Amino acid sequence: MNIIRKFKHKTSALMVAILMLLGTKTYAQSANGAGIGQDTMLYITFGLVFLVSVLVLIVAIYVLQLLKAFIRKEMTAEQLARYEAEPSWYAKLWARWNDFKPMEEEEELLLDHDYDGIKELDNHLPPWWKGLFYVTIVYAVVYLLIFHVFKTAPLQEERYEREIAAAEALKANQAADIVVDFDENTVTATTESVELADGQKFFESQCAVCHKQDGGGLAGPNLTDKYWKHGGSISDIYKTIKNGVPNTAMMSWENQLNPIRIRNVASYVLSLQGTNPPGALPPDGELYEPEN
Ligand code: HEC
After folding, report:
1. Measured between alpha carbons, how far is residue 67 from residues 58, 60, 61, 63 in Å?
2. Is 226 in the pocket of ligand 1 (CB under 6 A)?
């Protein structure tokens, strides 16, 4: 019996250690930024394993009850009486984990001093409490190995630094995306098809309501001819989009669009020059001829 008990202690300690190792492994992975997908997969796997374990347990308990019923049937009346008199396993467990002297025998534990009638018992710590204490020791050892000896998981400080580094990299990336080396006076029209496509996409979703999909004009003027109310150079168009035209439906887009976007849209507008779409509004404003 003693051997079995010892064995049980060892296996449960091992299980705790394995569980903690697995736990820290997942933690380390998410800290590495390995991606949500992998983590979710892990959680799902754990969930499934847990579910299956519970099912197996239920079936096992059921089979055990069945076996017991059979055994009972085979017992003689005397055997049955003895069997029923035995306390249940949880009663035994409860007694073992709460092992203390019954009230009537407390007298034996009395220490021999007496302070004005206050006496002291020499009770030992409850086994469940000691069990918890041992778990913390095992935990500490596993923790030490993981974080300080094998360094399988990063410490707080390292994780903080990694996250900062990742954020810095992200910031640098985004900054690189919008290197603005022009202003509204020095801007030049882009001829990059990707940037023109970006401008077109934005024009069609935001500007077409007033200027029509093909730029022929609706509530806003025709943008495909050579006549402009506010100038037809890339710089003029950039300014019109950026600042809008006060007291008209043409609002300022400065807060919605970064400079690159404004340049892309303005360049796209310029690329519509001379397309002569059907049903376009008549010319409005002054003739503008490009310098070259
Ligand atoms: C709510 C309607 C509306 C929307 C949306 C709109 N505009 Fe306009 N836009 C106008 C009106 C009206 C004018 C004429 C303003 C005036 O009377 O001077 C105008 C003028 C312009 C001009 C100057 C034309 C000229 O003759 O000088 C340009 C360029 C222009 N819009 C581009 C755009 C772009 C690009 C967008 C999308 C980012 C846009 N507009 C969105 C209504 C609109």
Report:
1. 14, 10, 10, 6
2. no
